[in-house]
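Weekly structure sync, notes
Attendees: PL (lead), two postdocs, one rotation student
Agenda item 3: pending single-chain targets
PL asked that the sequence for the first pending target be pasted directly into the notes so everyone works from the same version. It is reproduced below exactly as submitted, 175 residues in total.
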Amino acid sequence: MLSKTAYKKHQDIIENDIKYTPYIYDSELSTNTEKVFFHPDKEVVIAHSGTNFRSKNIFNDLKADASVLFGLENQNERFKNSQNHLNKVKNKYGDKYNYISTGHSLGGSVSSQISKKNPDVYSIGFNRFSGALQSFRKRPKTYIDISNHNDPLSYFSRSGSKKNNIINNKGWHSI
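Predicted structure, written out during the meeting:
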């Protein structure tokens, strides 16, 4: 549910999406591509949006997609900004909470990269967009990949590893 909210506008999240959950939406730290949710008893969740074709910043998303396709995530601004954003979130909330990064498609790739660089952050990706190079990379122990068997965009995230959670739903790239 929190991964889906990463695509939404701030007001929609507050009024509709988390109304019946224990999470508090942190609108100060949330951005167009990253939404921050705080659970006072245990954790902070950062939800990363995937490629958003309705966004004014679609060109930046497409550049990030190209970086994933060619295995150049470390050189892309979206991936660099996500690490800087995580640092801001950790500075605000401190060490006593668990940190979870989640996302769909491109957001799943961002979450995967976050868990590679931060072994203390647990990550969950839904239908993580990936290129052929990702099938040869070792998946972080703190990362869980959940993908639809019918999804061609997450095909390479499923290959090369037996630690996948593959689901069968009617959609092909939906959450």
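Discussion points:
- DSSP finds six helices and seven strands in the chain.
- Helices lie at 2-5, 10-17, 58-69, 77-93, 106-117, 155-158.
Action: rotation student to compare against the earlier draft before next sync.
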